[in-house]
Amino acid sequence: MNFEGNQNRYINSKHLGVQVVKGYLHTGKTSAALHRTINLKNNYCLYNSDKIAFIATNNNNKMLVQSFYEATVKKNKPSSITLFSLIEKDIEFFSLDELIDLYFELYVENNGTKFKDITESDKLLILREVLEANEQSINKIRTIKNSSIYFILDEIQWIKASMLSKEEYAEVNRRGRGKAVRKNSSAREVLYSLNVQYQSRMKELSFVDKYDKTKYAKSMVENDNTKYIHILLDNCENLTRGELNFVKALYYKKDYSSFTYLINTIESSERYAWLKNGIKLSYMNDFDTFKNYRFSCSSVKKLDDYSLERFTYVNLKHKSEHAFMIDGASTSNEIIIDYNDKQEVIKEEELVEVPMYSDIAAGEPIPMNGEQESNFYIPYNWIRGKKDNFILHVKGDSMKNANINDGDFVVIRRQQSADHNDIVAAEIEGSATLKRLNLKDKIPYLMPENPKYQPISLENRDASILGVAIGVIKQV
């Protein structure tokens, strides 16, 4: 493989400690990091107990990265031999999900505790209890008094996802969190108190969410002897602060150890991702200095179709599906449609540029964020029009029986009215949700497509239709 400039400097660098590799998608960050592992293995693993971990965000990414390593890096490793390269060891590949699950299960086993996964309905029930118990103090704080329960729940979940202490929350930059709450204010103090009471009540009822699992997993890692002298963490832009802290707990800091953050300089679609909205890596506050590398272009040759991202577009009206691919290494806005193993390239002039926004809840409504994050290109004839369409990232599983799942992207036609049984994006008192509209009865309802969620009555509610869902984009 051919590397240039900063890619080579990073691969062969003698700098250890913390390293941050940033760049746009497909600029060779992951490929360079995998090649750097050979340098680390040959020169900076001094003992048999010294281990290297490459951590991907999910199992699909782990398998892709590991296959790439086996097919290219390991086959083409340098022929030079050092004293340390004679020590037989290899890179360990993990997904973050599997590591958290593993250590959470160990926590459960060690503590003899049985937990139940909390539902969205349970979250709201618990929070309503907490709010009723704190009505007097809430009424004194206009910011909280005038906030919906969904805003308060969202704030609590962000605090949990970020593993923020009371002191940290008082000072933290909340940019991009919707409603402004001043630093070191009474409002922050009350919100943090509500968070503590909410978490305490969850624990009493033996409920856990994904953020609790990360917290308990981290506590197990801190008391475990399995540590890694070198850690390379991919796609950090999508991780919560809690997840970043969990991985750092796996790190064994020595004079010759290293920790590499690989960061795509794009706006993450993950709602509670830490490295967004101006929050800096230095806020992690346990690393003194770090070395930055910025990759601006990729000169890395593709291995078959490693750079191809695969998607399926589902037309909700006609129930038809179209498989397509995007070549992330290409500088052109074009897509590749797969027709029975025959591929056709659709050029930019035949595509519609559709703006993408952040989350819409397929669960309980969540606060709206009106900022455009990026654009997506779709063939004109799939959506029958160039104007008044937009895309929202789905968060939650309340529409799963309509084939709209957590993590999908739903294409919305912007309109202020809808027919009975349409799937609509609706705004309710400042929060957005995706549901099926029921107009059969005197009172209109927003209906979930998952029996664990309750219908939402629109009677006497400040609600409006943002648009009607016409399609779903699923990443394969």
TrEMBL record:
<dbReference type="InterPro" id="IPR039418">
    <property type="entry name" value="LexA-like"/>
</dbReference>
<dbReference type="InterPro" id="IPR006197">
    <property type="entry name" value="Peptidase_S24_LexA"/>
</dbReference>
<keyword id="KW-0238">DNA-binding</keyword>
<dbReference type="InterPro" id="IPR050077">
    <property type="entry name" value="LexA_repressor"/>
</dbReference>
<keyword id="KW-0805">Transcription regulation</keyword>
<keyword id="KW-0804">Transcription</keyword>
<dbReference type="GO" id="GO:0006260">
    <property type="term" value="P:DNA replication"/>
</dbReference>
<keyword id="KW-0068">Autocatalytic cleavage</keyword>
<dbReference type="Pfam" id="PF00717">
    <property type="entry name" value="Peptidase_S24"/>
</dbReference>
<keyword id="KW-0378">Hydrolase</keyword>
<feature type="domain" description="Peptidase S24/S26A/S26B/S26C">
    <location>
        <begin position="355"/>
        <end position="470"/>
    </location>
</feature>
<dbReference type="GO" id="GO:0009432">
    <property type="term" value="P:SOS response"/>
</dbReference>
<dbReference type="GO" id="GO:0045892">
    <property type="term" value="P:negative regulation of DNA-templated transcription"/>
</dbReference>
<dbReference type="GO" id="GO:0003677">
    <property type="term" value="F:DNA binding"/>
</dbReference>
<protein>
    <submittedName>
        <fullName>ATPase</fullName>
    </submittedName>
</protein>
<dbReference type="GO" id="GO:0006281">
    <property type="term" value="P:DNA repair"/>
</dbReference>
<dbReference type="GO" id="GO:0004252">
    <property type="term" value="F:serine-type endopeptidase activity"/>
</dbReference>
<dbReference type="InterPro" id="IPR036286">
    <property type="entry name" value="LexA/Signal_pep-like_sf"/>
</dbReference>
<comment type="similarity">
    <text>Belongs to the peptidase S24 family.</text>
</comment>
<keyword id="KW-0227">DNA damage</keyword>
<keyword id="KW-0235">DNA replication</keyword>
<dbReference type="InterPro" id="IPR006200">
    <property type="entry name" value="LexA"/>
</dbReference>
<dbReference type="InterPro" id="IPR015927">
    <property type="entry name" value="Peptidase_S24_S26A/B/C"/>
</dbReference>
<dbReference type="InterPro" id="IPR027417">
    <property type="entry name" value="P-loop_NTPase"/>
</dbReference>
<keyword id="KW-0234">DNA repair</keyword>
<keyword id="KW-0742">SOS response</keyword>
<keyword id="KW-0678">Repressor</keyword>
